[in-house]
Specification:
260 residues; alpha+beta; Phosphorylase Kinase, domain 1; Transferase(Phosphotransferase), domain 1; six-stranded antiparallel sheet; 51% helix; 18% strand
C-alpha cells in the first residue's frame, strides 16, 4: 500500500494492531531512511471537526514528533516520528525488566511528555502499555492512534492521570501482587485521584518517589509482603515489648542450639 501527497510518498510496511477507530501504519518515506507512523482518519465528521485541532498541534514547536498532516483520497492523515521498537506490554512479558529498569522507562515516558509539551489529549492517547514503545536503547517512542478525537475537549489532565494509573499498575504488577513496594501503591492512589496539575508537577512527584525507592536496599524490593509478613511488621511497630520478648526467645533458642 502506498500513500501519496504532492510532496511525499509513503510506503506502508505494516499496520499496528490497534483496535480503535483509525488505522495506524508504520511507513517508510521515499528518499528518507527514517520510519514514520501514519494515522489514517476516514470518518468524515471527525475530519471536519478535528482538522483545525490537529493542524494547530502540528505547529507547536515543542511537539517535534508531529511531522505532518494532509489529505489524500478523501482521508486525512497525521504523520508522526517512529522508530524500531517494542511495546511496553511486550517488554514486560518477554524481557522481565528489573524494578530500576521499569522505573527508568516510566521516567522516559514522563520526560517525553514534558519535552514535547503534549496537550492532554495526546498524552491520554499514548498512555497505554500497548502504545508506549521503547527502542533497544530504551528511548521512549509514542505510538499515537488519535482515538476518540470527537471527545478531545473532554480529556483533562485528571483523565490522563487515571489512564496512566493503569499503565503504572501494569508496569509494576509484580510489586503490586507481592505488596513489596508500598510507595508504588500510594503513588497509584494519587494518580487515581488526579491530584497533579500538569505533567511537570507529575514528573516532580515521580522524581521524588523514584529516589525514595532506589535508595532502599534491593532486598526490600523483592520481599514478598504476604499477610504474615505484614502482621509481623505491625507487631514490631505497635508492640515493642512483644518484639523484645520474641527477640529474647529467638536468642535463647540460638544459644541452646550452640551448647548442644
Amino acid at each position: 500500500m502506498v500513500i501519496k501527497t504532492l510532496e511525499a510518498t509513503y510506503s506502508v510496511q505494516r499496520q499496528l494492531p490497534y483496535a480503535q477507530d483509525n488505522r495506524v501504519f508504520v511507513c517508510e518515506k521515499e528518499g528518507v531512511n527514517d520510519l514514520f507512523l501514519l494515522v489514517e482518519i476516514a470518518d468524515k465528521e471527525t475530519i471536519r471537526t478535528a482538522v483545525d485541532f490537529l493542524s494547530s498541534a502540528k505547529r507547536m514547536p515543542e511537539f517535534s514528533d508531529f511531522i505532518d498532516c494532509f489529505f489524500a483520497e478523501e482521508n486525512f492523515y497525521a504523520v508522526f516520528a517512529f522508530y524500531n521498537s517494542k511495546s511496553l506490554e511486550e517488554i514486560l512479558k518477554e524481557d522481565h525488566p528489573t524494578l530500576p529498569e521499569r522505573l527508568a522507562m516510566v521516567r522516559e515516558i514522563l520526560e517525553k511528555w514534558m519535552l514535547q509539551k503534549l496537550p492532554p489529549y495526546f498524552s491520554y492517547d499514548t498512555a497505554r502499555v500497548d502504545y508506549i514503545r521503547f527502542t533497544a536503547g530504551t528511548k521512549s517512542v509514542l505510538a499515537f492512534a488519535l482515538s476518540n478525537l470527537a471527545q478531545r475537549d473532554e480529556i483533562t489532565f485528571e483523565k490522563v492521570q487515571q489512564r496512566f494509573s493503569k499503565l503504572w499498575e501494569a508496569a509494576f504488577a509484580e510489586e503490586f501482587a507481592k505488596k513489596s513496594v508500598p510507595e508504588l501503591e500510594r503513588f497509584k492512589e494519587t494518580l487515581d485521584k488526579g491530584v497533579y496539575e500538569d505533567v511537570p508537577a507529575l514528573f516532580v512527584a515521580y522524581d521524588k518517589l523514584e529516589e525514595e525507592i532506589l535508595k532502599q536496599p534491593e532486598g526490600e524490593w523483592e520481599a514478598s509482603k504476604t499477610w504474615p509478613f505484614r502482621l509481623w511488621e505491625k507487631i514490631k511497630a505497635g508492640f515493642p515489648a512483644v518484639k523484645r520478648i520474641i527477640e529474647f526467645i529467638l536468642l535463647f533458642a540460638a544459644f541452646m542450639f550452640q551448647i548442644k
